[in-house]
């Protein structure tokens, strides 16, 4: 998958991260996944700082963002992404265990492209991640780099 844009997976639960990576591996897209363990790490990746200072420039194809994460929660990360004209075009899928109506409403109000509640059952979770990875990482055509024109 040389030249393909990476997928950012923001997940602090090691079990869920491992399952998501395994599901994406089955879809042959795991080589493009950048795993971030908290919201601060996602922002470091997006702004090419800290451990990501030397990464190749450019936005990821999609960000799968958990809400309840340490350091910076997913809603704050989403707020930062959608407030930045260079990051705003990145599709953000909230992939979370939260079924709270407040989280759902705020996610969409801040500009999330989708909100997926993580299934608790193993096979359903793997299946959901496979479908998300295939759509957002393979099928969906992301906006061209530099198309940060505001709506």
Can you summarize the main beta sheet? Answer: 5 strands, parallel
Count up the helices: 5
Q: What's the CATH class label?
A: Alpha Beta
Number of strands: 5
The Rg value, from CA coordinates, equals 14 Å
Q: Tell me the fraction of residues in β-strands, as a range.
A: 5-15%
Write structural notes for this entry.
It is a single chain. The chain has 151 residues and is of the alpha/beta class. The chain has a single domain, classed as 3-Layer(aba) Sandwich (Rossmann fold). Helix content is 39%, strand content 14%. It is built from 5 helices and 5 strands, in the order βαβαβαβαβα. Helix 3 links the parallel strand 3 (62-65) and strand 4 (92-96). It is globular and about 35 Å long. Residues 147-151 have low confidence and may be disordered.
What are the salient characteristics of this protein?
151 residues; alpha/beta; Rossmann fold; 5 helices; 5 strands
Write the layout of secondary structure elements.
Elements lengths: L6 E4 L3 H13 L6 E4 L2 H8 L15 E4 L8 H10 L8 E5 L4 H10 L3 E4 L4 H18 L12
Parallel strand pairs: 1-2, 1-3, 3-4, 4-5
Helix pairs in contact: 1-5, 2-3, 3-4
Summarize the structure.
The chain is α/β, with parallel strands linked by helices and 151 residues long.
